[in-house]
């Protein structure tokens, strides 16, 4: 028997990387889990690989659109009857540059991808969780939600914004059985990192390997993090034992963040 | 589905300063449930024996008598765990509390020293001994029970607030020293929990804080939080199990809140 028996989770992103690791951990502990992504093919592949029968369900949606965020939460409830856990996991950025050269589009893209989608899905999920007086919202922030590197300001700003939203939201729903927390992982070599990292590194005037070295070297463990590190903490927060933890920005960064 | 129960601390050895009651006891029970052998500690041998009998874990639980504000106890429990169970994987420096309360202006040197010894030096002495054992083994977990008062500050309990801030600094520094050696060092920062020690010292703390009584002090702490209730020892124990497990190998230098949303950062 698992610590999430009978619980229903919705994870934005979730076909690969951190979201996928969280989905697998939740399913292992008895939850029914909706995973999300833009590509039907990748979704089908993820569901097949997870091999969890009806406990995992893929919904294709581009969460950069508000309506899609609302629909994703509604579809989770339609599929499994309720929503207990929201993991706002998708996010990222592109077209990084020093602020003096940064385009509006690059800033807006990161803010929509990371921050607005977190807000939209959280608002929609609260609509279900507040009446049922229980719920867990877990936002996947970043070590860059606490510190800041040059040239990736859209990413840094969007993750800091998520952390502020989490703190404020936790105060609103603290007495109605809902917790809201952010996980702040250090760099992990996910597919997303492999896709976006080279562009970010180029904008910083370094190689992709050089960028990964910066992340590793600023940590105490001198290596990158792994998706399972994040999934373990997500599981704790989602479990009954996590009921007393809210408004927290939990560092999973090998000792990088100063606070 | 895979229903095999995999215990997270199978074969691990832990020592916990304090541990006969409240947070330390909850951690001890959680560790035992996950397969670890555990040495708990306290000053009172009668309470220690009673806790062993209540935990009912047979040879996997042991008691080490001693005052955690004394160096020989902090080093002794580490040595005893190694002697008794062969090695030490997890050192939980949990003992501590509000010893003597007074505003800074009325604080005596003697009271100040006692609080530094109990809440800060105890952590340093235990951590140093544990790291001396763990560094050659390239493996280990150090977990310090800090407090929300390690980031906040309330009036009337300056010794507690100061020492909890200090252990957070010690944890960060130690984490950087041993980060590449397979050893993690973390602090858990609980909000107010109605433990035996809070019930015992709370009335006096409340007076020092300028409050009407114990209930008002608990209410003050709860008002800081988003959940408007005290935390529970089981909530701390669950985090301790996570940090002690192999799964948390990449979490270090972390000040992990279990405070219902009380701290600003």
Number of helices of chain A: 8
Task: Give the topology string of chain B: H per helix, E per strand.
Answer: EHEHEHEHEHEHHHE
CATH structural fold name of chain A: Rossmann fold
Q: Please summarize the sheet with the most strands of chain A.
A: 7 strands, parallel
**Beta-strand content estimate of chain B:** 15-25%
Global geometry of chain B: globular
What portion of the residues of chain A fall into strands of 2 or more residues? 15-25%
What does this structure look like?
The complex is a heterodimer of chains A (259) and B (265). Chain A has 8 helices and 7 strands; from the N terminus they run E-H-E-H-E-H-E-H-E-H-E-H-H-H-E. With 259 residues, chain A is an alpha/beta fold. Chain A has a single domain, classed as NAD(P)-binding Rossmann-like Domain (Rossmann fold), CATH 3.40.50.720. Chain A has a 7-stranded parallel β-sheet with strand order 3-2-1-4-5-6-7, with helices on both faces. In chain A, helix 1 (17-28) crosses helix 8 (227-238), helix 3 packs parallel to helix 4 and helix 6 crosses helix 7. Chain A starts with 7 loop residues before the first strand and ends in a 7-residue tail after the last strand. Chain B has 265 residues and is α/β, with parallel strands linked by helices. Chain B has one domain (13-193, 231-257): Rossmann fold (3-Layer(aba) Sandwich). Helices cover 47% and strands 15% of the residues of chain B. Chain B is built from 8 helices and 7 strands; from the N terminus they run E-H-E-H-E-H-E-H-E-H-E-H-H-H-E. Chain B has helices at residues 22-33, 45-55, 71-85, 109-137, 158-178, 196-208, 214-224, 233-244; strands at residues 13-19, 37-42, 61-65, 90-93, 140-145, 183-190, 255-258. Chain B has a 7-stranded parallel β-sheet with strand order 3-2-1-4-5-6-7, with helices on both faces. In chain B, helix 2 links the parallel strand 2 and strand 3. The longest helix of chain B is centred in the middle third of the chain and has 29 residues, at 109-137. The relative contact order of chain B is 0.15. Chain A binds chain B through residues 1, 28, 30, 52, 55, 167, 170-171, 173-175, 186, 219-223, 225-226, 228-229, 232-233, 236, 239, 241-256, 258-259, and chain B through 1-3, 172, 175-176, 178-180, 191, 225-228, 231-232, 234-235, 237-239, 242, 245, 247-265.
């Amino acid at each position: 028997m698992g610590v999430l028996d009978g619980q229903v989770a919705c994870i934005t992103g979730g076909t690969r990387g951190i979201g996928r690791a969280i989905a697998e951990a939740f399913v292992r502990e008895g939850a029914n889990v909706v995973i999300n992504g833009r590509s039907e093919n990748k979704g089908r592949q993820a569901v097949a690989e997870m091999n969890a029968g009806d406990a995992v369900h893929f919904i294709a949606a581009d969460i950069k659109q508000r309506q899609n965020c609302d629909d994703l939460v509604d579809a989770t409830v339609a599929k499994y009857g309720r929503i207990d856990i929201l993991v706002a996991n998708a996010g990222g950025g592109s077209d990084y540059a020093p602020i003096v050269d940064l385009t509006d589009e690059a800033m807006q893209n990161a803010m929509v991808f990371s921050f607005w989608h977190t807000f939209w899905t959280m608002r929609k999920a609260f609509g279900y969780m507040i009446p049922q007086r229980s719920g867990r919202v877990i936002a996947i922030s970043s070590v860059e939600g606490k510190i800041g590197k040059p040239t990736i300001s859209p990413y840094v700003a969007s993750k800091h914004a998520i952390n502020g939203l989490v703190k404020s939201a936790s105060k609103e729903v603290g007495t109605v059985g809902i917790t809201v927390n952010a996980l702040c992982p250090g760099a992990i070599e996910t597919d997303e990192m492999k896709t976006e990292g080279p562009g970010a590194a180029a904008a910083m005037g370094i190689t992709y390997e050089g960028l990964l070295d910066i992340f590793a070297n600023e940590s105490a463990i001198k290596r990158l993090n792994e998706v399972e590190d994040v999934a373990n903490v997500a599981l704790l927060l989602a479990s009954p034992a996590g009921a007393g933890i809210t408004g927290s920005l939990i560092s999973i960064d090998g000792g990088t963040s100063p606070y | 589905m895979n229903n095999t129960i995999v215990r997270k601390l199978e074969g691990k050895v832990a020592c916990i300063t304090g541990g006969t009651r409240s947070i330390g006891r909850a951690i001890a029970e959680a560790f035992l449930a996950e397969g670890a052998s555990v040495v708990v500690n306290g000053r009172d041998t009668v309470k220690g024996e009673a806790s062993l009998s209540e935990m009912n874990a047979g040879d996997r639980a042991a008691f080490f008598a001693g005052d955690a504000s004394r160096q020989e106890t902090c080093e002794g429990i580490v040595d005893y765990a190694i002697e008794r169970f062969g090695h030490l994987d997890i050192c939980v420096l949990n003992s501590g509390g509000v010893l003597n309360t007074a505003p800074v202006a009325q604080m005596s040197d003697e009271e100040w020293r006692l609080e530094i010894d109990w809440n800060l030096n105890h952590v340093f002495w235990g951590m140093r001994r544990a790291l001396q054992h763990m560094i050659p083994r390239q493996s280990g977990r150090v977990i310090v029970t800090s407090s929300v008062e390690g980031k906040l500050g309330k009036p009337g309990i300056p010794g507690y607030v100061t020492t909890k801030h200090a252990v957070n600094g010690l944890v960060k520094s130690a984490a950087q020293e041993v980060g590449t050696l397979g050893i993690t060092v973390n602090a858990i920062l609980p909000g107010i929990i109605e433990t035996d020690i809070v019930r015992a010292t709370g009335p006096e703390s409340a007076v020092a804080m300028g409050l009407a009584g114990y209930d008002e002090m608990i209410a003050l702490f709860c008002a800081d939080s988003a959940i408007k209730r005290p935390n529970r020892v089981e909530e701390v124990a669950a985090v301790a199990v996570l940090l002690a497990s192999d799964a948390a190998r990449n979490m270090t230098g972390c000040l992990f809140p279990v405070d219902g949303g009380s701290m600003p950062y």
